[in-house]
Amino acid sequence: MTQKALLDVQGLKTHFFLDDNVTAKAVDGVDFTVNPGETVAIVGESGSGKSITSLSIMQLINKPGKIIEGTIKLEDENLLDKTEKQMTKIRGNDVAMIFQEPMTALNPVYTIGNQIVETIRKHKKRSKDAARQEAIELLKIVGFPRAEDVMNDYPHQLSGGMRQRAMIAMSISCDPKLLIADEPSTALDVTIQAQILDLLDEMKDRLGMAILLITHDLGVVAEYANRVLVMYGGQVVEETSVERLFESTKHPYTTGLLDSLPSLEKEMSRLGAIKGTVPPAHNFPKGCRFSTRCPHVMDRCHVANPELLEVEPNHKVRCYLYDEEGDKYDGRTIHSQPTNT
Description:
Blueprint: E1 7-17, E2 23-34, E3 39-43, H1 50-57, E4 65-74, E5 77-78, H2 84-90, E6 95-98, H3 102-105, H4 112-123, H5 128-141, H6 147-150, H7 160-171, E7 178-182, H8 190-207, E8 210-215, H9 218-224, E9 227-232, E10 235-241, H10 242-247, H11 252-259, E11 309-312, E12 315-317
Parallel strand pairs: 3-8, 3-9, 6-7, 7-8
Antiparallel strand pairs: 1-2, 1-4, 4-5, 9-10, 10-12, 11-12
Helix pairs in contact: 4-5, 5-7, 7-8
Domain ABC transporter: 7-258
Pfam families: ABC_tran, oligo_HPY
InterPro entries: AAA+_ATPase, ABC_Ni/Peptide_Import, ABC_transporter-like_ATP-bd, ABC_transporter-like_CS, Oligopep_ABC_C, P-loop_NTPase
């Protein structure tokens, strides 16, 4: 029996309407699902649309941005049909989010304890004392040995890793079904990064929640995710299980991302690089959006944008190197020498 998706995003388009009638298509027709208890990673360079996708789910898109099309269903309820008042109840309760830099998400004028207690009381029927005790227990769960003292600390008094732990405590305080983690460890040093990601993985298992992990780091994806979506130019260009992605990469963009990773298994005189940069969302090239950077570009790539096709079971790719006739290309085995920027 097919597992019923916890989150089902279909045809999502989030565009930004700029001056001079210019439209930036930051997210442009994205489909994906997240199953209960699963970690799904969205990976891509800055400007690929992954963070705007996560903010669209939370309904946190500000003007001049607007969700113009699609559905975002959480357990069959379309979040795009909800009022702001209804979404306020859903945020933090059913769906929680951890941001890349906790200093922008934590209020600098309130103590850590006040902010966690407020979150608990907003979504649960708890007395102030009961909510305080619950907050202390949450801080202990996320690794604070002196949780009672931390309750009285302000965000600026904590290190980056400690602030991120406090954000995790706040985000899991109401037992969310889905936790969105947007680059949760990017601003931290390598040791603290691993601790934060291990903690999220532990919380997922303990609480039975699903995680949507937004990252640019395929090393993180390999370690923590079950499935992965590779985004480029506001669209999904490859989707499969993490194991299959590393065994049989299909899209040239994904190949470039993998070639840029250091490896202990093969000698490398220098890391690979993808030439050029991600085009701005208001000025994508005609045809395939990766065509201006692709080492395998063909004439047809400049004519029309390819569809996202399932080229083998549970493995989708948006590339003319694959089509309905069954032509396939294994980008990890056959590829041009990377071009350096």
